[in-house]
Amino acid sequence: MLVNSCFAQLLDNSVGNALEDHWRFNNTFIKKNSICEIRVEHSIKPDGMGISKTGDVSIFQFDQSTGKKREHVKISSLFGRSDTTNIRYRYMDEKLMSTTQTNARSVITDTLIYSDSATTATRFKADINGQLRKTQVRSETKNTSWPNDTTKIVLSRNDIGLPYFKETWTWDSQGFLVGMESEFIISAEKKQIRYAYDKYARISERMTHENGKITKETFSYDTWGNLEKLRRYEGEILVHSQELLLSANGLPEAILTRLEKSDEIVISKLFYSYCE
What we know:
The protein is mostly beta strands. It is built from 1 helix and 18 strands. The chain has a single domain, classed as Beta Barrel (Porin). It has an 18-stranded antiparallel barrel. Residues 1-7 have low confidence and may be disordered.
């Protein structure tokens, strides 16, 4: 049961991506409520038809002492078929440490090693005897600079030292994130994000410009501060919407995702396990 309703913001939407592929959780909420695991089971309901379980499951596990995510497992079995794919992400202090993808044909593991400014990813693949062998090593160096008090620039270099990716983060004088720009230097592909806030200093809008396409996302919150609704527009057309359903004690129990172009609803039910 929920023991700290004042910490009821389960999802962390501080940069507007709480419900993207790797859900962002509020560490304080997880710790205060002694949540060790959240299991999310996904179902699909096409308009006018019944609910079908997809076999897709996401399992998030947390460190009891900090509330931080330590493992995320994605299981995709495509309506219960035998060719199940498992992807396991392991974290330490919010950093991704390894990714392991397993299916009927192979096992691929990427292990990440961090130094002060560099990240080295080593890939292993299982051979015919099940033994893991090293197949790829990729190094990346990140250099962070602060041209002024409100601007951070992160420049990434590949394993031969060439700069290939640049991120620029900007805050206003009150410390609110104003925007982020990213650029792949060689291809000149750019992405620009701008943020707007409500009167409670929560992100209310995220506007993204990418490859000539403009996407606007609007966010609304309930009385506890939980992210309640998300709406995504391409131009003026609503293409994607999400809504949280709460239990009687204020704990999110399901998320409804509607893909407007397909008239399809994805139902994600949340199940909680508590630390003893």
